[in-house]
Amino acid sequence: MTSRAAEPVAADDHPTGAELEISESRTAQVGALPVRRALPRRGRRTVGAWCFLDHMGPADLAPGGLDIAPHPHIGLQTVTWLVSGAVLHRDSLGTEQVIRPGQLNLMTAGHGVAHSEEDPGGATGPLHGVQLWVAQPAATRNGAPAFEHHPELPQAELGQGTATVLVGRLADGGAGAAASPARRDTDHLGVELDLRGPSTLPLEPGHEHTLVPLSGAVAVEGRVVEPGHLVYLGTGRDELGLAPAGSGSGGAARAILVGGAPFPEPVLMWWNYVARTRDEITAAHQEWTGRTDRFGTVRSPLPPIDVGLPPWASG
Ligand code: MN
Fold this sequence. Notes:
The protein is mostly beta strands and 315 residues long. It has one helix at residues 278-289; strands at residues 20-24, 26-30, 33-39, 50-59, 68-73, 76-84, 87-91, 96-99, 104-108, 113-118, 127-135, 146-150, 155-157, 161-167, 169-170, 178-179, 188-195, 199-202, 208-215, 218-220, 223-225, 229-233, 239-244, 253-260, 268-270, 273-275. The structure holds manganese (II) ion.
């Protein structure tokens, strides 16, 4: 995905304790695809190292309706997870990988990478899923790009629910710890929750978290969170009580929960770049526009996406 309207970012609010804040996601359009953007938000730019969260679909797209042409990234990892449908990922490392429900695509941009997301063709069903970005820390954000595909991920049973661990390690709540094999540059967690009844999710008390319902409403500590909304949870919890709260979907709900240790550095986001300074972003964008070797070439039939200079550089 590509964030067309990401704005420069000021310092974040840090968690003040075990708060529980429900708010509405913004609606946005990525190509022909309607999305609900839960992150970034004013005053809450990062949750752990997570700095972008788009809930896409469910949408029945015309052939090619998904296509996101080649575009650049720096300083972040893209995390793609589908509930239904399929997406073809191509990148400037030479990767060509179809992702299907239950699988994880994780691309690390580091100093620079380019990718496209395309309709793989065939009958894949409505597209429904999430794409997230993880801000890379100082230690790796100027490093080499990389790509991982994980066809299977570990699960943990949580009462009447199942957690699939996309990234990170689920705290041991008695069901046994579950750890994802996916690369992780900071102490963060991403899980999909399939809730059939009351469930208890173990949490790391030093972490902050956000939960986004994907289908069906979810009761979080008894507060109902509807799809199209997100709930922010501050630090200080060692577990979280969850249950499906909707009348539809046969009393089931599906949600994504992301969190981690509060990110120590304020990040600056513009278009598809995550950095620390305007100069870094301007330099990266000039290299993308100039087609230098920094971002390489994506073997895609779609022409690369170009946008103008950032507002601070276009005066
Ligand atoms: Mn992208």
